[in-house]
Write a sequence for this structure.
């Protein structure tokens, strides 16, 4: 099929994205069991960061290849000829890339719309009040399902229902607020947004659910540890707050950009049991169990970065990429 200059570029971008992303996703799937074992033996804060970077690796690498090599080599070396033919294999790969991106865009748009409507309804029904220990005012909602969560992306806001405030004691509220502050400080809503933005490797096939679920679990554990900060009395208060909020029947939808104290649609009953159990017993971690692994990863990243810089500086790199694109487009 013959396509004009810019449409050929668009076709190549989607095809390159799909092929590179699928290949890197396969590497992530293969390495997922090892990554989950690493996270299992790490502190929750490190485990959450590690799994987030591991999950986002295919997306980041593919964007770098498309934006750093594919587009520049095409614009620099491809003549402004019109009507050059594009092979069916390239068109099929481009169609797959377009589909996964459209699904990602729909997922993100749907989530942003639902979150915006939810926050608008909370602001319309709620009232901002000053809470001791909170720098920003807390939005207290009078009606609707019980909630305690940090909501929003750009300027996240702590939202709590009046029923939750009345249910918790002062110590429990303070511990719960510290938990939500940890979500806000680590920008967990932004990470959820990036998860939604990152396309799946194949249309209608999500191969990263186990990694994302583990990330969500370690994120909650990390927020719990931040809220407790080694204080046994505070740990007891947070455990009691979790049980009390769970009994109220909190029911936020997973599509919202929320970081809740507890959400039964995201966490299962056994997750609540494990969280409460963690809070009621002292956690023991090795001092630096992953120090050798971190050092190796740092050296690999440094070597890879050096190779990338050398490839970008080397004049022939874009020419090599353009030759690969010529093979792809045929």
């Amino acid at each position: 099929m013959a396509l004009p200059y810019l449409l050929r570029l668009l076709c190549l971008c989607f095809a390159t994205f799909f092929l590179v992303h699928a290949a890197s996703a396969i590497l992530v799937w293969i390495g997922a069991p090892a990554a989950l074992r690493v996270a299992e033996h790490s502190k929750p804060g490190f485990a959450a960061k590690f799994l987030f970077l591991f999950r986002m690796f295919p997306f980041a690498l593919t964007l770098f290849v498309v934006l750093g090599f594919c587009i520049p080599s095409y614009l620099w070396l491809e003549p402004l000829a019109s009507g050059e033919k594009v092979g069916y294999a390239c068109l099929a790969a481009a169609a797959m890339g377009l589909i996964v991106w459209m699904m990602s865009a729909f997922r993100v748009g749907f989530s942003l719309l639902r979150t915006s409507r939810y926050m608008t309804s909370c602001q319309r029904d709620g009232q901002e009040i000053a809470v001791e220990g909170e720098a920003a005012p807390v939005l207290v909602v009078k009606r609707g399902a019980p909630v305690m969560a940090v909501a929003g992306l750009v300027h996240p806001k702590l939202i709590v229902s009046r029923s939750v405030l009345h249910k918790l004691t002062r110590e429990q509220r303070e511990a719960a607020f510290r938990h939500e502050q940890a979500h806000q400080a680590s920008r967990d809503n932004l990470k959820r947004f990036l998860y939604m933005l990152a396309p799946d490797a194949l249309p209608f096939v999500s191969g990263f659910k186990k990694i994302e679920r583990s990330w969500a679990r370690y994120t909650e554990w990390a927020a719990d540890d931040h809220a407790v900060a080694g204080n046994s009395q505070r740990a007891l208060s947070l455990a009691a707050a979790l049980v009390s909020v769970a009994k109220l029947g909190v029911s936020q939808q997973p599509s919202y950009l929320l970081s809740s104290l507890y959400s039964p649609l995201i966490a299962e009953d056994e997750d609540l049991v494990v969280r409460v159990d963690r809070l009621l017993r002292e956690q023991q971690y090795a001092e630096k169990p992953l120090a050798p692994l971190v050092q190796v990863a740092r050296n690999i990243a440094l070597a890879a970065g050096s190779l990338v810089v050398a490839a970008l500086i080397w004049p022939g790199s874009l020419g090599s990429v353009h030759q690969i694109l010529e093979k792809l487009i045929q």
Remarks:
- DSSP finds eleven helices and seven strands in the chain.
